[in-house]
């Protein structure tokens, strides 16, 4: 009869004890001597974990398979930067609705609601941008903040998927409105458009906030990828708008191509999102986050996020995020777009606003967002200094040749060199991209790893709040240049 396991274990123990005594030493096991056989414990065979020489609390992966546990412990490379590119694409997608609508003003004001098309003067045209702004940003801000405290729609996957689907459906409605004759119901077209914008930005608020939360689980450069995508989104919208207006004189057809392009971008976002769980690099951080959440909840009850503690620790960087976007939106595009060339000899007279405003800002912001992958300066403690200095851009642009239709300018124009204006406005775009990327990347690192997604969501809410308040203050600038001299 073959020997039993217990007899084999006893024999091995005796041999080890004899060997230890021969060397004049004492063999320790756990907390007791090897002489005390009562302290011996069954051997746990976990070779894939033991080879990493990790402490016992790191080997608690009872809910994971061996492959998942190995993946959680060993970070694979991001091959071909596929995860980085995916978050960059989603960064483009989250700001696509806003960028597409603000750069399609000629379609709305110059075509669909023009007197030549509808046969009368539409009363809401002078304040169309204000209506569009409020219908876009109020639901966006509200749902960004709400998404932090209330899991609207359930898991992150559910929230992202349904938000993108809502955006796709609403862009289809927008394209359909562009295709049909709406001259007989101008008011109906206006209010359908505004309702579409409200619904689109409700979904977009959830989408944007959730994507930043997901990126915060990964290394800082992946949050930077989302910010870079945001800036590419503006560049993309500006270039598509310019190309469509140059290739056809038909505003209606240009708008159809324009909105269909946005539709395809959202469909790409939808497809790439489902590719993320297939990527081992992304799954590594997902599993790492999962194990951290499990260890933080020893009783098996899901831990309620300490919102106030996360907010307090993140606040310095949240303030930086807010201020960067407040200053940027306080002048772009409202003031930027209405700056006229001083010299008639300055080139690109016809496309002055398109080139010096939309294209320049978005390209420079995109380059600024790329820089943190090469240089990170200053440290989180000192970032507030250059961020606060950017407030000087507001009086600078007001002192340029900023002209508002219907407003007699009283404030003197002190910046009379168009090249100087263009160069300094370029630095505004560059610093917007660079400092915003740093602030967004720093924010999740101010808290424990398991709270990083929540800090990322706070950063997204601070971002959109800065955008909203910056847009609100732009309504003050026409009064300022007309009364302050």
From TrEMBL:
Species name: Acanthoscelides obtectus (Bean weevil)
Transmembrane intervals: 82-108, 160-179, 185-203, 224-243, 255-276, 318-339, 351-371, 383-404, 419-442, 454-480
GO molecular function: nucleoside transmembrane transporter activity
Membrane-topology descriptor: Multi-pass membrane protein
Stated name of the protein: Equilibrative nucleoside transporter 1
Chief location: membrane
Any single GO CC term annotated in Swiss-Prot or TrEMBL for this entry: plasma membrane
Keywords attached to this entry: Membrane, Transmembrane, Transmembrane helix, Transport
Domain of life of the organism encoding this protein: Eukaryota
One Pfam family of this chain: Nucleoside_tran
Subcellular location: Membrane
Presence of keyword Transmembrane: yes
Entry keyword annotation includes Membrane: yes
Family the UniProt entry places it in: Belongs to the SLC29A/ENT transporter (TC 2.A.57) family.
